[in-house]
Structure formats: structure tokens, C-alpha cells
Specification:
The chain is an all-alpha fold. The protein is built from eight helices and no strands. Helix 3 runs antiparallel to helix 4 and helix 6 packs antiparallel against helix 7. The N and C termini lie far apart (49 Å). Belongs to the Ycf3 family.
Length: 173
């Protein structure tokens, strides 16, 4: 099961050693430990651009992991892979599933907003202005929620909300 790291560097090696130590001393079930190993291997594969391998590991981790908080991060990472591959609808599905389990995940909210903003730009290019406005409105809602949770992040989104006049909720001004 453990993944052989192709790009071993000091930080990766240190993380792996520390994670293995923590896994041995924590009072967790065998399934939880296995789930973490698959999750760690998925992150390693994902960081190397091995998306198919990462997805296999994440899906296996999902079958073993029971903790909703931990599952939310697995789902979020699956969403990242689909977004990277341009499969935005699938990415949105996984980001929403992650948010159902963990409502305090500003990075998922931001990524949803980025996808809606991108879809708004594409619609505007095709002169579908109603669709474009709808997508931009959705992006604004998700960016406002992300900024509410992480006020010092997403500065570009904050600027976009201000310049478009969409900064109206959560007293973000």
C-alpha cells in the first residue's frame, strides 16, 4: 500500500516519517490508519500530477474513513483533481459534498466561486448575458461566504466584488 515517492525531498520524507510515527501512537482503528495512508498517498500522487493514482487512493480512503471532517478533505481533494482536469461539473459535486460535511471550508467555497466566475466569462463570450449574470451572481455568493470565513484571504475576489458592486453581504466592506 505505501507509495514509493519519486520526488523525495527533505520535507516529504520528514512528513512521511512523522505521519508514520503519529499513526503508530494514536489510538485509532486499523481502518482509520489505512484511510490516512491512502489519503497521504493520494496527496503525494496528486502533488506529482499523477491524478489517476491520486483518485484511486482518495476513493479507497473514502471507503475506509468514517469521520465526516476527514471525509470532507478527501472529497475536496477529489474536487481539486476534477477541476484541474477541466471537469467543472464533477468538481462542483465534490466541493458541495465536502461542504455538506464541513461548512467551514473556505477553500471549497472559493473554488466553487472560481468555477462559476469562469462559467460566467464563457457565457459572456458567447453573448449569453442572462447566464453570465447568473453565474457571476453565484460566484459572488460563494466568494462572500469564503471571505466571511477567511477575511484575510481571497484579496482578488474581494476586489472583484467591490469593483462589480456585488460586495453586499456579511459586512465585508
Amino acid at each position: 500500500m505505501p507509495r514509493l515517492q519519486k520526488n523525495d525531498n527533505f520535507i516529504d520524507k520528514t512528513f512521511t516519517v512523522l505521519a508514520d510515527i503519529v499513526l503508530k501512537i494514536l489510538p485509532t482503528s486499523k481502518e482509520e490508519k489505512e484511510a490516512f495512508c491512502y489519503y497521504r498517498d493520494g496527496m503525494s500522487a496528486q502533488s506529482e500530477g499523477e491524478y489517476a493514482e491520486a483518485l484511486e487512493n482518495y476513493y479507497e480512503a473514502l471507503t475506509l474513513e468514517e469521520d465526516p471532517y476527514d471525509r470532507s478533505y478527501i472529497l475536496y481533494n477529489i474536487g481539486l483533481i476534477y477541476a484541474s482536469n477541466g471537469e467543472h461539473i464533477k468538481a462542483l459535486e465534490y466541493y458541495h459534498q465536502a461542504l455538506e460535511l464541513n461548512t467551514r471550508m473556505p477553500q471549497a467555497l472559493n473554488n466553487i466561486a472560481v468555477i462559476y466566475h469562469y462559467q460566467g466569462l464563457k457565457a459572456a463570450d458567447k453573448k449569453k448575458f442572462e447566464t453570465s449574470k447568473s453565474m457571476f451572481d453565484k460566484a459572488a455568493i460563494y466568494w462572500q461566504q469564503a471571505i466571511y470565513l477567511a477575511p484575510n484571504n481571497y484579496i482578488e475576489a474581494q476586489n472583484w466584488l467591490k469593483t462589480t458592486g456585488k460586495l453586499n453581504n456579511y459586512n465585508l466592506q
